[in-house]
Specification:
homodimer, alpha+beta, Alpha-Beta Plaits, 2 domains, 5 helices, 20% helix, globular
């Protein structure tokens, strides 16, 4: 904490974990012409604290993507207890966004720049018949999925690679090299769960990785082709971008001990 | 199957299993002034088959209540294969209702009158903090729940009893005696699952049973009071009616072999 220049009030930097169902939002990041999670949370916090609040998120998420754990930080001079921030903000938010915890952070903590890694889950509902309880929470894929095969194929993503082939053509990042800590595929009944953890992710990267694995499953790409796709640095050679409703930001890592390595 | 009087077409009686998320509907049963699951399904089937279709459901469900397995039957002269009925109807329905299967039934099969029993689940999300993924699918209860205690208390519902104390005052049934086959409570992390199977259920019966167990948990009713509440035949002595979003019609039984006895 530090005192601001003009008076005696302390400027607090607060670290918040939240969860949200992304269905009704155009992603996390504030936009001029569409309702986003950032706008909803800033409005709720501003209402509670009686001041303009700007929050700094750990990540952008796309429209329709969910988060089980999303970190942001914000600054305030309001002395309200952290528990009051959680309960007071939740009462002002819709059912689809919830603050999970709030704690005092170091002055220089920034949810995005301090983030050491993230873990995503992508859920495929593998069924010919739709399920009303999964429609906005998983991507339905009628083609039978061999999860054991795809788990083996997924291991080729682990390590440091250039992911140029696995990011949207809109991606403006110069450095497209990222390190994947773990990547695996597991079946639980009708659900096939793709999990991937890494130090950073490019635009649409997880959704293209999953789409590529599904293309291998469907015989549209040969088994064992991931290493070559990585080397090619060509988006057009990898698989499709699967839709957003199956994607969950599952965990964000800030300390070495958070990590699953 | 039988031939109708006027021509050569066979009248088929079809037995359909479906699942639905009840959030957007005013229950199953068709009503004059509100949109119901029955109306949505009849409109989809009528559109597919090109004729007016009336469906007969196994049960009424209240507004906001879900079904993982709900049986209905209907008659048609259209020779479309049963698989075509499932896929064709699903394509005409929203994401929150799905036909799961369809098969030819005996002429006299009726989803309601032939039903031998049902099993319900009621999900409580036991947490001070809301969860965006459970908001419309569970009832959030912040008070810590002792699931082991409630499982023991729930056993008092098993057997044949008069459930007059456990049905809404609006209930118009003369005979309020029902047989409960099994009733139990189990914790899975933050979720507490109440399951009850029986030969029939009165209006709001499961929701009042769960509300009564929660009242015992909260010390508003004494432990061991269920037998006395049953004998009293007085709705005002039992616990509250818990809200609909936690309730799932989970299974419907038609044969002895379906039953969990």
């Amino acid at each position: 904490m530090k005192h601001n220049g003009s008076g005696g009030a302390e400027v607090r930097n607060l670290r918040v974990m939240m969860a949200y169902r992304g269905t009704a939002y155009h992603g996390f990041q504030r936009q001029g012409n569409a309702y986003t999670v950032q706008q909803a949370v800033e409005e709720a916090l501003s209402g509670l604290l009686g001041e303009e609040v700007t929050i700094y998120g750990c990540s952008r998420t796309d429209a329709g993507v969910h988060a089980r754990q999303f970190c942001f930080n914000f600054r305030t001079e309001n002395p309200i207890p952290t528990r009051g921030i959680v309960f007071g903000t939740n009462a002002r938010l819709g059912d689809d966004i919830a603050l999970l915890s709030c704690e005092e952070a170091e002055e220089d903590f920034h949810a995005r720049y301090c983030c050491k890694g993230k873990e995503y889950e992508y859920i495929v509902h593998n069924s010919e018949i739709k399920d009303p309880f999964y429609c906005d929470r998983a991507y339905r894929c009628p083609h039978p999925i061999d999860a054991v095969l795809l788990d083996r194929e997924a291991k080729a993503f682990v390590g440091e690679h250039d992911f140029k082939s696995f990011c949207s053509a809109d991606c403006d990042k110069e450095n497209t090299t990222r390190t994947i800590y773990s990547c695996g595929v597991k079946r639980e009944g009708d659900l096939v769960r793709f999990r991937v953890a890494g130090n950073g992710f490019l635009y649409n990267m997880v959704r293209i990785m999953v789409g590529t694995l599904l293309s291998i499953n469907e015989g549209k790409l040969p088994q064992g082709s991931v290493p070559q796709l990585l080397l090619s640095r060509d988006r057009t050679l990898a698989g499709r971008t699967v839709p957003p409703q199956g994607l969950y930001l599952d965990r964000v890592f800030y300390k070495r001990s958070d990590s699953i390595e």
